[in-house]
Design brief:
The chain is an alpha/beta fold and 613 residues long. The chain is built from 25 helices and 19 strands. The chain starts with 12 loop residues before the first helix and ends in a 5-residue tail after the last strand.
Length: 613
């Protein structure tokens, strides 16, 4: 059959077979990804073969948190066993172990590179030991949903994104009944070691489980080793120069940087839009900082700086308005504003407001049920918060007032990720700009607190248009195919944690540093990272999130350049993740700056073909 143009609509059999094969073997991209070589740290190689490492004291100790007596009381076995000593991997006296059964679990949100942890772990264990995967995260562990990961599985999952092979979830293992349930599963499945791949909360859980399972799990009195692997796209699981970053961060930030870079190019092309982009990262702003370093946006906010300087919502709006006005005065009616997901929780006045609202809503839940309309509920709540908070609430657009009264989570906290902060700022900036244009003499002049513009520039600003678009980049960065760095980093983390399992270690998190000079494999005692934190009305042992530090080289570089980025077109478009060629060897800029490296190039050893065709 031909259409009116005379073209034939008969597809070739070869092309049809290829299209059909995608369902079974993946896309052409995925097939080529599986073939990529991976750098391997030298100590994991012997005569061309991948082998496990042994461990020795690195010479460095971690002091337990400030209240050592409470740590000792809660973790007596781990504290005694590890002595808070940091271990380093060694090629001497490699462990020769058979019959070991190791289970591995993904916990929390997914991150690129998780599958390579499984590949490295399986290869470290070798054919004489068994690797079991846990389906569906902690929930699956409690239910005993385990299966054997075989060598034949590795060729299908290597270098692929996400956690699709096993799945994950966010179930918290916190109660004694849950700990006992995990113990029963380990006993029934004859598990010798449990590897938890997760972030700060999941590795806190690993420390608690390591203590609980330390001994007397099996009939012969043996316990179960528990080890951690650092995973979170937020990048907030760091330990100074011992553990520079968690895996998944590089892939996520390169994905976001590509999209932000594309938008920045669009602003330079159409020259008529301001884009407000919210980036995932509720607590620390490492993601936002890295994307800013990669793309050089017009305005970018770092939550930690907002908190330290105690900036108000009005001051944040003013910062954006100043950039808009100055650029409009020069005929530049476009730009990009980067906003951290958790920004409003770091604004002191907003944090107080949210805290007061949480308290009123929690303590008056039954009374609120008797009120029929949102207006009645709002009136009831506003009458029970402080005068300052009520005034702040009144400055917010109506729809955002309503959002602050949304249902709370299981802990009684506002679901901040559901608040479109980017749209809130657009509305508030738009309102302020209208006010500035109507009364330019109040905002523009030679005083330090005003914008200094010439009469011609004032006229250009007053006549300018402020057109906007909003975006939220979050899930797009979690499950993409890993960058070359994340692929290599995770594979070596897998080799490292597999070596720890064979060496009989427990209560450690795998870590790799010296990322620019061949990589150094370390084991950090989890108990040395634990500290006491007040959460939900009570003290809890947790691994503290690493926040952006104001004196870090990466942040200093940012603040030294942001004024120029705000007034000039300095944007950069990093482009898509590169898996071949020189750009593919680039580390996150944040790591390279903070670790004092001489270049952005990573070096994790000799490249190896991991899976044979």
């Amino acid at each position: 059959m031909r259409d009116i143009s005379g073209a034939s609509w008969v597809a070739s059999p070869e092309l049809i077979r290829f299209c059909e094969s995608v369902e079974k073997n993946g896309s052409l991209f995925e097939r080529e990804m599986r073939k990529l070589s991976i750098p391997v740290i030298d100590l994991f190689l012997e005569e061309g073969r991948i082998v496990p490492a042994s461990f020795e004291f690195s010479g460095e100790n971690l002091d337990a948190a400030e209240d050592v007596s409470r740590i000792l009381k809660a973790f007596p076995n781990l504290y005694s066993a590890t002595g808070c000593r940091v271990l380093k991997a060694s090629g001497r006296d490699r462990p020769v172990v058979t019959g070991r059964r190791v289970a591995v679990i993904f916990s929390g949100g997914p991150a690129a590179g998780g599958h390579n942890v499984l590949v490295g772990l399986k290869m470290a264990l070798g054919v004489d030991n068994t690797l079991l995967g846990v389906r569906n995260g902690p929930k699956g562990l409690l239910a005993g949903e385990l299966f054997e990961i075989r060598e034949s599985d590795l060729a299908q999952i290597i270098n692929t994104g996400g956690f699709a092979f096993m799945g994950t979830d966010r179930t918290k293992i916190k109660t004694k009944d849950q700990f006992d349930q995990v113990e029963a599963v380990c006993r029934d499945q004859r598990i010798d070691c449990l590897v938890i791949v997760g972030g700060d909360d999941s590795n806190t859980n690993a420390a608690v489980l390591a203590e609980h399972l330390f001994q007397n799990v099996h009939s012969d009195g043996r316990g179960v080793q528990v080890l951690g692997v650092p995973k979170t796209i937020d990048g907030d699981l760091q330990v100074g120069d011992l553990l520079p970053i968690s895996f998944g961060f590089d892939t996520a930030t390169k994905t976001y940087s590509e999209m932000v870079g594309n938008i920045l190019q669009d602003t330079l092309s159409s020259r008529k839009y301001w884009h407000f982009v919210k980036l995932m990262g509720r607590s620390a702003t490492h993601v936002g900082l890295e994307v800013a370093l990669q793309t050089r946006p017009t305005v970018a906010f770092i939550s930690e700086e907002i908190a330290e300087k105690r900036l108000s919502l009005s001051q944040i709006v003013d910062t954006i308005c100043r950039a808009v006005a100055r650029r409009a005065a020069r005929g530049m009616n476009y730009g990009v504003v980067l906003i951290p997901e958790g920004l409003i929780e770091f604004i002191p006045e907003m944090k107080t407001l949210i805290s007061e609202l949480n308290e009123v809503i929690a303590s008056s839940s039954e009374l609120l049920l008797d009120l029929d309309t949102i207006a009645e509920k709002k009136e009831f709540i506003l009458g029970r918060i402080s005068e300052d908070s009520a005034k702040l609430m009144a400055t917010l657009p109506d729809e955002f007032e309503d959002m602050l009264l949304l249902d709370r989570d299981s802990h009684g906290n506002l679901k901040v990720s559901q608040i479109p902060t980017e749209k809130l700022l657009i509305e508030m900036v738009s309102a302020r700009l209208r006010e500035m244009k109507a009364n330019p003499d109040l905002f523009i002049g030679e005083r330090d607190d005003r914008i200094n513009l010439t009469p011609e520039e004032v006229k250009r600003f007053v006549e300018s248009k402020f057109a906007t678009n909003s975006h939220f980049f979050g899930y797009e960065g979690r499950c993409g195919a890993p960058t070359r760095f994340d692929a290599a980093y995770t594979f070596n983390l897998g080799l490292l944690v597999g070596s720890l399992a064979l060496a009989g270690k427990t209560g450690y998190i795998a870590a790799i540093n010296a990322l620019d000079r061949g990589g150094q494999a370390l084991a950090i005692p989890l108990v040395g990272l634990i500290h006491m934190e007040h959460r939900q009305g009570k003290d809890e042992f947790v691994i503290e999130k690493t926040m952006v530090k104001m004196d870090s080289p990466a942040f200093k570089f940012f603040i030294e350049n942001r004024e120029r980025w705000a007034t000039e077109d300095c944007s950069a478009s990093p482009g898509p993740r590169q898996l071949w060629g020189p750009v593919s060897s680039q580390l996150p800029m944040l790591i390279a700056l903070n670790q004092g490296y001489n270049s952005l190039k990573f070096d994790l050893g000799e490249e190896r073909k991991i899976i044979s065709d």
